[in-house]
Amino acid sequence: MDLPIERNLTVKSQLLIGILLMLGGDFMFALNDAMGKWLVSSFSVGQVLAVRSIGTFVVLGPMIVRQGSSRLLYVERPLLQLLRALASTLDTTCFYVAVVNLPLADVMSFYMALPIYVAALSHLLLGEEVGRRRWAAILAGFSGVLIVLKPSSASLSLSAICALIGSIAFSFVIVLGRRLRGTSDTTLVTWQMIGTLMVGLVMTIGNWRTPSPFDFGAMLLLGGISCAAHLLITHALKLAPAATLAPLHYSLLLWAIVFGLTFFGDVPSPRILVGAAIVVLAGLFIFHRQNILEGTLPPENVPKGPS
């Protein structure tokens, strides 16, 4: 995010602001998800993706002008940039396909496994060391995903598979973002929005339904909310440690349950709640072990033995 980092605040104040920004960003992501579910019940996924992407550029436009359009064309590691944009497009598309038929809480339960996927992919793609304790947490967390997925011929649905694929694609976005730390946030978000726009336009062929001014405005607003959520969370990570903020991301599941119940009458089943609880606990353990390896916990709180 291209906002100035507060220079005259105490460390404690920056930490508090970072936490508030993270919670605010997650709330806006949850609002984006609820609005998206509402819109795809009346319009095609492609149409929502296309108009949403246009709305995103309303926010990104001034930022692109400020940084200069040349920085969009001359980027580090173009192949990785392309792969990240493709993964982001796959994530967004799969998410909206999934929420057409699944409750928000069900879909978000898959996305709560993000730290589990990121830990595994970081080992495979970035060469980061993952000890036996975190591998155990990864396997336990994935068992929670399987409980949510319920992979049987009678219950497995295309929407559930899309939610799983989308959450894995999003973890690729995060891991590739680590490799592209030298690229500005504006450039990263712009290319992923371009990818989503192009796919949305292709999917819209033959599926366009003329929206009312209200519905068209809602789709544009959806893009603005999504972009603002990305920017809030990006700035939060500049003010507070990622290890402090990452567990707050689980508030998305709470908001998904609240919005799903309030606006769509969706009540999570016990199976979904049990699977989600396993995923969240496994993710929190991975965060805890990462804190230890980075030396952010006091020595007396560090268990003996390898991770």
UniProtKB/TrEMBL annotation:
<feature type="transmembrane region" description="Helical">
    <location>
        <begin position="155"/>
        <end position="176"/>
    </location>
</feature>
<protein>
    <submittedName>
        <fullName>DMT family transporter</fullName>
    </submittedName>
</protein>
<feature type="transmembrane region" description="Helical">
    <location>
        <begin position="214"/>
        <end position="233"/>
    </location>
</feature>
<dbReference type="InterPro" id="IPR037185">
    <property type="entry name" value="EmrE-like"/>
</dbReference>
<keyword id="KW-0812">Transmembrane</keyword>
<feature type="transmembrane region" description="Helical">
    <location>
        <begin position="245"/>
        <end position="264"/>
    </location>
</feature>
<dbReference type="Pfam" id="PF00892">
    <property type="entry name" value="EamA"/>
</dbReference>
<feature type="transmembrane region" description="Helical">
    <location>
        <begin position="15"/>
        <end position="32"/>
    </location>
</feature>
<feature type="domain" description="EamA">
    <location>
        <begin position="160"/>
        <end position="286"/>
    </location>
</feature>
<feature type="domain" description="EamA">
    <location>
        <begin position="17"/>
        <end position="149"/>
    </location>
</feature>
<keyword id="KW-0472">Membrane</keyword>
<feature type="transmembrane region" description="Helical">
    <location>
        <begin position="38"/>
        <end position="61"/>
    </location>
</feature>
<feature type="transmembrane region" description="Helical">
    <location>
        <begin position="270"/>
        <end position="287"/>
    </location>
</feature>
<dbReference type="InterPro" id="IPR000620">
    <property type="entry name" value="EamA_dom"/>
</dbReference>
<feature type="transmembrane region" description="Helical">
    <location>
        <begin position="188"/>
        <end position="208"/>
    </location>
</feature>
<keyword id="KW-1133">Transmembrane helix</keyword>
